[in-house]
Amino acid sequence: MTNTQEFAPLSIAVALPAYRRALVERMLQRLLQENGEMSADWYVSHAAEADVTLRLPPDEGADPSASLLAELRRPDGGRETLTIEWPWRPGALLAALQRIARLLRSGAAGSADARDALAWQWLRRWSELALEARGRLLELRMGGQVVALMDARLGYWYAANQVLPDAAQFVTALARDSYSIELGQATPPPLLRPVSIKPLLWQLGVRSGHYGALPALRQRGGLRLKGWPYLAAGGPKAYAELIQKLRGGFNTAASLRDSGLAAAGLVDGFLNACLVCDFFHGETAEPAASAPAPVPVPAGVFAGAQMRPGNEQAVIASIRRSLHAGTP
Amino acid sequence: MSEIKLLFAGPMGAGKTTAIRAISEIEPISTEVENTDFSESDKAETTVAMDYGELTLDSGDKLRLYGSPGQKRFEFMWPLLAQGALGVVVLLDNSRPEPLADLEDFLSAFSGLIEAGRVVVAVGRLETHPQPGLDDYLASVSRRGQFLPVIGADVRRRDDVVGMLELLFEQIESTASTAAAAVAAGAAGDDEWLQFVQRARAQ
Amino acid sequence: MTQASLNLPEALRGALDTALRELHQRIPAIMGCVVATVDGRLVAHIIDNEADPQRIAAMIGSMVALGESIGRETRIDRSQYVVVNASNGLLYAQRVPSRRELFVVSTLARPTTNLGLVLHETRSAAEEIGQAVDGWLEQQQTRLAAAASTAEA
Ligand SMILES: Nc1nc2c(ncn2[C@@H]2O[C@H](COP(=O)(O)OP(=O)(O)OP(=O)(O)O)[C@@H](O)[C@H]2O)c(=O)[nH]1
Ligand SMILES: [Mg+2]
């Protein structure tokens, strides 16, 4: 898995003489079929304006083995041309497409914007795998090496230096080295102290907003906040308003974007951050019904209270019922 | 279970007595006396020991609602009343001269409970006194390395009072589940939650 | 809170200080006496140990009010006074009886002292203070009335 995960698939058009066009299109189709993750990234288009257009180099004439030119249309409107050598070799074509996707999505110049796109891609992968993990840890590789194991359910980060990276450094590293996230082992690594990954997730979420809501968010019906996203403390004023809104009434990512509370990028960033940090209620479950099963809790956490947690959940449920029963 | 209780704290005139009245099913027991300190508030009466209200739960237990006196000179009552409480709602009044200084007083007084995720802050009279805004409160809280919910509310509306308790309960539940997760992951240590919060702050 | 103490008009302050000084002299093993407002602000004090008078004032305010509430709650009617009988001393507190009940007075004494004596002496001091308060309230009333009639004229 390379870092070519995207937002919407990229379109690729083949503008070649008929004899080569059929050949290249068939190659592309096969590549996409055989590489599941590629098919999420690309589709073959016949439109005149595609994200990528394959052409013959001007002086190559009819040589069927000639390299191809890939004309890229960047999201900012800029254009760029790349040469694909040995395009009839599937491996070479695949590598080229991956490189192009990376260029289009993360920007060759490594601008701040491009790094935010990486944050988006990374979180998309994270949130997909979080759903599939079922107790397994996620393995983060960068430059081919496993650099961290992550527990998506508990929100932990295990790394050799036991320190959570800063979000800005993290996306810079993502842009520099290729990365992948895969399902890994189920047991936490010995001797490594877990570090909460939420502060990193939160910041990545906020940065990712300019690239829209994560797919997992779009798939949800109503959004209702669970607890209080304390990580929003110190953020823009609109966060407080978004929190208020998300705590009452029915909201979706789209309705919040339309509410005019804040710019779309800010709203989506906030929602992405809340999603990956697990600040939303499950889709159907009512808060009272979704209370977690009683589990042991360290003594220090209950320093201020005398009750035991299992008991406490029952008490809270009972207070809720009584308060709501008393509503005139 | 010996006792189930909640405390409403906050400076003079913020609405502690009013909030308890909104949800108590008994006529609250109060310790109101004549207010002699008009520099604090022009209210005629003020609570000097405690307010007390009750709500019978369907389990048959009673939820005890305590209100503390607001003036700083009564701060000796605050920990007494908070002892063993499920949580504390700190009510603030944005029309007071220095609401952020009031906030600081209560953040200090209840720091242990804040670390345990058992405190919420509700700010009143925001409509008439929009400054400081909720984000100023949040900034003050986070400058101290603490995290807690801050909402706007009007204690004269029962729904608002129920809403602040709901928020408190959600906060307690999410703290408990995070702490439980810490145990499950073998990240034991009494101050795990505190460290988590501090790390989050440092980011 | 910088200063919880109350500034009183000169005449009332004089009467109050006198009453407190005399009370302090009348009880043999006294450790201190304090006058506070019903809402716990310090008015006057003589304290022989290191207890903080401001804090005592607030606590007495709470305690007397709590005594009132408990009296009402248990239907034993109005609380006359509250006593803390501790192993190393006793504390007695009551309201100052006046038309408007604005003050409380409290005595702190060693255990060698007889509670009856503390009770008796503090009560008479409270009555003296109460008379001074009533006198002051009346004076205020007259002044207000005079001010009102000049305003009308
Ligand atoms: N206009 C307005 N009035 C409010 C609001 N919140 C509370 N109040 C009023 O403010 C007053 C609060 O009084 P209390 O409930 O006695 O306040 P408290 O916190 O118990 O005060 P102390 O016991 O003196 O510390 C009540 O008269 C409320 O009706 C608000 O948001 N707007
Ligand atoms: Mg009150």
UniProtKB/TrEMBL annotation, chain A:
Top-rank taxon of the source lineage equals Bacteria
Q: What is this protein called?
A: Uncharacterized protein
Organism of provenance: Tahibacter harae
Phylogenetic lineage: Bacteria, Pseudomonadati, Pseudomonadota, Gammaproteobacteria, Lysobacterales
Automatic annotation (TrEMBL), chain B:
Which keywords does this Swiss-Prot/TrEMBL entry list?
GTP-binding, Hydrolase, Nucleotide-binding
Q: Which Gene3D superfamilies match?
A: P-loop containing nucleotide triphosphate hydrolases
Entry superkingdom:
Bacteria
One Pfam entry for this protein is ATP_bind_1
Keyword Ribosomal protein annotated = no
Q: CDD domains from the xrefs?
A: Ras_like_GTPase (cd00882)
InterPro entries, alphabetized: Gliding_Motility_GTPase, Gpn, P-loop_NTPase
Q: Provide the family line.
A: Belongs to the GPN-loop GTPase family.
By what name is this protein known? ATP/GTP-binding protein
Q: Organism source for this protein?
A: Tahibacter harae
TrEMBL record, chain C:
Extract the SMART domains matched here.
Robl_LC7
Instruction: Give the protein name, as stated in the record.
Output: Roadblock/LAMTOR2 domain-containing protein
Q: Where is the Roadblock/LAMTOR2 domain?
A: 17-107
